[in-house]
Here is the input.
Amino acid sequence: MENNAKVYHIQVEQKGKRLDRFLIGATDDISRTYLQKLIRDGTVTVNDKIINQPSYTLRFGDKVCLKLPESRPLESVLPEKIPLDILYEDNHLMIVNKPAGMLVHPASGVNSGTLVNALLAHCSDLSGIGGVERPGIVHRLDKDTSGVLIVAKTDVVHRELSMQFEQHTITRQYVAVVCGVPSEVTGTIDAQIARSRRDRRRMTTVENSGRHAITHYQVLEIYNKFSLIQLTLETGRLHQIRVHLQHIGHPVAGDAIYGGEQRAMKDADTLPIKHALINLKRQALHARTLQFEHPISRESLMFSAPKPADMQRLVEALRTLTRAHL
Here is the structure.
């Protein structure tokens, strides 16, 4: 057997388990996301037959072989000494306040200026944790969304944090300035999300065949044609908050993809609001608070980051209008 292959024989107590969940429990140095990718890439066999479905149900006596690809460096992604706003750091993880305008990880045609570039310079041994393309990244924020983000320093921590996200035990709260005022002070948006067939950059809500997505919201302040709201994610889908708010008719102010940019400029009643929106140059969405259990110490931790200056200027301009505190 090759040195980079691992073989497991399924026992009675392991039968009925999903393939990916079994492998997560059997390996202590590979993240769940990366394991699922390996399965889909055809690197896992059951009884010498390639199985590329993570949900495959194991049977007693199955022989599972996981062939790990040879480790390779991040050839096109180089460390860059980009300043980081680090809220917390220990030997296991980091909490970073990501600025708006920074990509979390390299994308097509973009290999520099990302959070990953900065992390590789800050942590010399980060390469490959959670997969070579997104080292250390447990979750993500959109490029133009600012706020609190976790980075794992080891694959064990990456796996544990990924499980916490999957089990919805991590609390993530955002604040946003939205167009209009929701009819209810508090509410829940439960709508499946899928990629738009018309525009691959966009996500959209669908009746079925999408991914389950739930967002809870609370209106904090009302300013005429805008409002400041707090959002709590129960799930974490791509563009979830932005799509859900568009779905209920209240897109995030400044959001060029989901209708919030044009509407906000149309509804801006004063020059200071217009100027604040022009200078914002992004959606007014900020990941304010993150609470989770430390995977090693098991201590409950909570980190918060205040609204960045561009978003605060918009809120202050809106507060010159008649407003209600809720």
In short: DSSP finds eight helices and 16 strands in the chain. The chain has a mean pLDDT of 88.
